[in-house]
Amino acid sequence: MVSEQSDIQALERAIKADAREEAEHILDTAQARIDDIRQRAEKQAEAKCEVILQRARQEAEVLRSQAAAAAQLDAQRLRLERRERLLEHVFAEARRQLASVLKWPDYEQIARQLVREGVERLGADAVLVRADDETRQVLNDNVLADLEEELGVGLQAGEPLAHGVGVVLETPDGHRRYDNTLQTRLTRMQDRLRASVYRILMGEAP
C-alpha cells in the first residue's frame, strides 16, 4: 500500500515536472517570438525612419537649390533694373541736351546731312522739308536750292515742326514720311548704343 502511494506521488511529481517544463518551454518560445517580432518591428521602424529622413534630406536639398536659384534670379533682376535705370537716365539727359546742337558752329552741315538721309530714305522726286524754327533758318531757300541741285530732287519747305529738333521729310501727297529729327534718330540708335554706353558707365572700354 505504501509502495503504491509512493508510486502515485512519484507520478504526480513527474507530471508536474513535465507540465512545468512544458510551460517553461512555451513561455520561452513565446518570449523568443515576442523578441523576434519586436526586433523586426524595430528594424522596420528604423528603415521607415531612414526612408523618411532621406526623403526629408532630399526635399531640404531641393528647397535649398530652389532658394539659391531664386536668390540668383533676384540678384540678376536687380542688376538689370539698375542697368536700365542708369541707361534711361543717360538717354533722357542726352535728349535734354539735343537742343544745344542748334548752337553748334557746324549745325548747317548737320542739317544738310539730315535732309540728304531723308531724301535717300524716301526715294521720291519731290520732297517737303519740315523743320523746327531754328533749323528752318539754317535750311533757307539758298541751302534748299543747293541741296536740290546736289540731290537731283525737288525740295520745298513744309509746315514747321511743333516738336523736335531737325527735319521731317514727306512726299507732297503725304503718303510717305521720314522722321529724321535728332530725338527720333536717338531713339533709333538707342538699342544699338545700350551695350557700349553701359560699358562706358562701368568704366570699361566701349
Nutshell version of this structure?
72% of the residues lie in helices and 10% in strands.
Question: Would you give an account of this structure?
Answer:
- Helix 1 crosses helix 5.
- Strand 3 and strand 4 form a beta hairpin.
- This protein is an alpha+beta fold.
- It has two domains: 102 residues; 98 residues, 2-Layer Sandwich (hypothetical protein PF0899 fold), CATH 3.30.2320.30.
- It is built from five helices and four strands.
> What's the average pLDDT?
84
The biggest beta sheet reads: 4 strands, mixed
Question: N- to C-terminal separation?
Answer: 130 Å
Secondary-structure element series: HHEHHEEEH
Strand content: 5-15%
DSSP strand count: 4
Spatial strand order of the main sheet: 2-1-3-4
Oligomeric state of shown chains: single chain
Unreliable stretches = none
Classify the secondary structure makeup into a structural class: alpha+beta
What's the helix and strand layout?
Blueprint: H1 2-97, H2 107-122, E1 126-131, H3 133-138, H4 141-151, E2 154-157, E3 166-170, E4 177-181, H5 182-201
Parallel strand pairs: 1-2
Antiparallel strand pairs: 1-3, 3-4
